[in-house]
Amino acid sequence: MAPTKAPDSSRRSDRSRRAIHEAALALVGEVGYQRTTIEGIAARAGVGKQTIYRWWPSKAAVLMEAFLGLAGRADEETGPRSDDAAQGIPDTGDLAADLKLVLRATVDELNDPALEAPTRALTAEGIVDAKLGAEFVAKLLDPQLALYVTRLRAAQEAGELRADADPRIALELLIGPLMHRWLLRTLPLTHAYADAIVDYTLGGLTPRP
User: Fold this and answer.
1) pTM of the full predicted structure?
2) Which of 27, 80, 104, 121 has a CA between 20 and 30 Å from the CA of residue 47?
3) Which CATH class is domain 12-59?
4) Where does 80-205 sit in CATH, by number?
5) What sign has the CA pseudo-torsion 78, 81, 85, 86?
6) Checking phi first, is residue 115 left (phi over 0); if not, alpha (psi -120 to 50) or beta?
């Protein structure tokens, strides 16, 4: 008789984690962050509450990990996103074109229904939960912003930007208006708007005689 293989606990755990991630993202999209509960996530994923609490201290922690996993899968399926630290922001020698490419990709991400609900939930909750807010910044925002700083510093070295321009402030001029429009939902978030932000920003940063 062939020996019976013992169940693979690691594979079972991976399946459970994926199910919990998918349940958390689905519930936030359907009922919102406030109405999403650990009990609801557990029921949707087909696991016990104790399984979730064994791995995460709160629903915010579940959603954070689920969102990071979702972003990683999006990279694998569609290629490098604007925040892909391994790729960075393109440097073709045309700063305006490179920034427009990245901001357009960011517009697409913010308008993606699969990403919008969890992104809004984490952004809002991070304002009132200092610990979650710090984690959100450290894991999601800072790696993206560092890429802009690197590209803008390279542009300074190439003489494309004023030598005295602060790259951190410059990137905020690029990202701030985009996020403001997205958060308030006042007007459509479009590629044309992203292009205009780049044009207006660089118009104030490029060297002048």
Assistant:
1) 0.77
2) 121
3) mainly alpha
4) 1.10.357.10
5) positive
6) alpha
